[in-house]
Amino acid sequence: MTKGDPQAMEVIYQRYYPLLLDYGLKCTADRELVKDCIHDLFVNLYRNRHIGMEGITVRAYLLKALRHNIIHKLTEVEKGHSSLDEYTFEIPADENLFEQMFPKNDHDLVLARSLLKAIAQLPPQQQTALYLRYVKNLSHKEVAHVMNIKVQSSMNLLNRSLQKLRSLLEQTYVMYLILILGIRY
């Protein structure tokens, strides 16, 4: 990847650290554990200068390696968990961000909150796929690599996730209209 070049390693670290930290904090709320896992990832990269990355991007490789490190650390801490899918994947609702994005538009604010509530109802694997694809803009191939699934499975997972979100949002919107209009059923 970097063939042992310390400057290249530093550039990669500077470029991808925020992405790795953000992704790691979606997997576990333990910030120090995530930082340790990122540190271990880069130490291993530096020590192992012959990493095969044919057909994958640097960010997909780093995200998958971080996922592996987090799983490893969490299984050391809590024996019995063998998969990151057993842990809650969280996309936190930042009310200040919502208010900045929709300062005078209550309708959009309600929709944004509804979207986050709907996402929270999805299984962790679907949440992870949506986050990687639509928040972090990874390709289907990169999402598949990070999640250790086939590309077609990644596409199917995202499709099912979007269908479920549509269904949940339609239900929420109907309930919202019922409340606003005072309809009884």
Task: Give keywords.
Rna Polymerase Sigma Factor, Chain: A; 0% strand; 2 domains; Arc Repressor Mutant, subunit A; 185 residues; mainly alpha
List the helices and strands and how they pair.
Elements: H1 6-27, H2 31-47, H3 58-77, H4 95-101, H5 106-120, H6 124-135, H7 140-147, H8 151-181
Helix pairs in contact: 1-2, 1-3, 2-3, 3-7, 5-8, 6-8, 7-8
Explain what this protein looks like in three dimensions.
- The chain is built from 8 helices and no strands.
- With 185 residues, the protein is mainly alpha-helical.
- It folds into 2 domains: 6-86, Rna Polymerase Sigma Factor, Chain: A (Orthogonal Bundle); 95-181, Orthogonal Bundle (Arc Repressor Mutant, subunit A), CATH 1.10.10.
- The longest helix has 31 residues, at 151-181.
